[in-house]
Write a structure and sequence with these properties.
single chain; 230 residues; alpha/beta; Rossmann fold; 7-stranded parallel sheet; 7 strands; 46% helix
Length: 230
């Protein structure tokens, strides 16, 4: 299996969970260290040649890719009147176009083997919206359309495509937020707490399982109820 953005945060938790379950995991990332037992592959998902080379390396080491978790993502937050074209392009290129590239490449072996699981890491703000995140929320909303279109294209070949939509999760990014910002988030979350990376990883593991073979084109929120109805 392949996890993009697998050397930190949510991606790292996903890699660790699948390794513990006995999977052979390749972590595609541009920095950091892969989890012990994972194949670390340097890969910038905005570069088609790097994506192809990374998949070849993963396949040579671990065999055909049957599970893909397209998790790599970035943010460049600012209000729309201040958002530059470069801010927009950078986020779309990583979060959306990068997901397209890796899904397209992974689908080849999945279709051939007539079994596969594609899981995109979306976000609660993809459907809920977030001021200052027009680029990010647009990229995450588009993953829903991607998963559902893939489901209609290749669902008959034993391949599923779904989106896990985390809410506010405790990571290095949230650890540096001011207390008043955290308090604002907590007031909006019915569960009254931030999520844990392990909870997102558990949702991904389920969608990648044999038991989830009749679930495709779905959005599975892991957000403590924040995005209900969206």
């Amino acid at each position: 299996m392949v996890v993009t953005g697998g050397n930190r945060g949510i991606g790292q938790a996903i890699v660790g969970r699948f390794l513990a379950a006995g999977h052979r995991v390749a972590s595609f990332d541009m920095g950091g260290e892969p989890a012990t037992g994972a194949l670390g592959v340097n890969c910038n998902v905005t570069d088609a040649d790097q994506v192809e080379a990374a998949f070849k390396q993963a396949e040579e080491a671990n065999g055909p890719v049957e599970i893909l978790v397209a998790n790599a993502g970035i943010t460049k937050d600012t209000l729309i009147l201040r958002m530059s074209d470069a801010d927009w392009d950078a986020v779309i290129n990583v979060n959306l176009t990068g997901a397209f590239r890796v899904a397209k490449r992974a689908a080849k072996s999945m279709i051939r083997g007539r079994w596969g699981r594609i899981v995109f890491t979306g976000s609660v703000v993809g459907l809920y919206g977030s001021a200052g995140q027009v680029n990010y929320s647009s990229s995450k909303a588009a993953l829903v359309g991607m998963a559902r279109s893939l489901t209609r294209e290749i669902g008959g070949r034993g391949v599923t495509a779904n989106v896990v939509a985390p809410g506010f999760i405790e990571t290095d990014m949230t650890a540096v937020l001011p207390d008043d910002v955290i308090a604002k988030y907590l007031a909006a979350i019915p569960a009254a707490r931030l999520g844990q990376v392990a909870e997102v990883a558990a949702a991904v593991e389920f969608l990648a399982s044999e038991e989830a073979g009749f679930i495709s084109g779905a959005v599975l929120p892991v957000d403590g109820g924040l995005g209900m109805g969206h």
